[in-house]
Here is the input.
Amino acid sequence: MRDFIVLVYLIPMLLLIACDRPTSIDTEVTSPNPFAAVETIADSIRVGDMVIHNGFKFQVLAGRAEGGFDSLMIRDKLYAPNRQAFDNCLSMIFGEENAGKFQLPGMYAWNKTLHTDHGKLMAQKLSLLDTVNLNELFTSHLTALQTLTERRGHGRWMVYFGPPDFQIFGGCDNNSMILDMFGDSWNAADINDLFAHELEHLIFGPIAEKDVHGATGLGITLDEGLAVYYTYKYLNQSREEALYQQNTAILMQREKEIFEKLQPYLFKTSEEGCPIFRHCGRTNECPPLIEGLPEKLEGELCYFLGFRIIEQYVERHGPDAWKDLYTTPFKVFYEQSGYAEYVQRL
Here is the structure.
């Protein structure tokens, strides 16, 4: 699971925003020339109506152009194809004072110095291309997502290097999803898990927006829980692998306490139900209700609860019943899972 930095701007964004810490720039470079591999990366990868645009390719090429920094490449190949992500997402969620970094001409300044200021970190992140074929990885993820969920998705991801200290893995809507390669999530060990998780949001996000409880504690709990459960099925993981490895046992031991303390906020929005949004990593405006947990777990309890609700639903209704969540009202799914009754018996 990822760590979260709270970035709340508008309520509709709550279901999608997830951010990573920037990685230390002191990491050793393992590839002799990681920048060369960029030229073999496709500009975009499309499966049906789902597109991944490799904006980082043009950031690298623009900074290494023979005649000096190529600002037109930034304009035409990075900004223009992803204008909605820059104008309607990034320039909003990081605050008015930082909006210019994600619009023209402000984007030219930090892109021009990316190589000189952060070349070592860029090289370390690009070294992933030595062991992972991104064209094949992204294509297989997009195809498997629609095959396993039996639903056609639509949406657009941008993969790019953001301004340092403004990392994000998530987005604001299906057409402005962002993967920042400077974040901790961009590594060979995590890319499969995390990309599968985030792509599933492209399928479920529009469904959550239409459900009457989509913006409540139950909505974000089922949204994140389903993304975890989909990844668990797709990658054939154990429960521990899908959740928090050995720390999963801590949550299982305290499951009744966690549920009973958060249950009163399941059907409340962020204004009324701060505690559950606090334990979903969406806000820090109220103290935690569940204490004594590792910091990483404290902000992701809704991932655990959502996963466990779906597990109980599947136990009652069959191995493929998790897909019912795509067509069943959230409250009905929750009630038919029998999870509340199960917890009472613990």
Summary: The chain has 16 helices and five strands. The beta strands are 44-47, 49-54, 154-160, 169-171, 177-180. The longest helix spans residues 191-210.
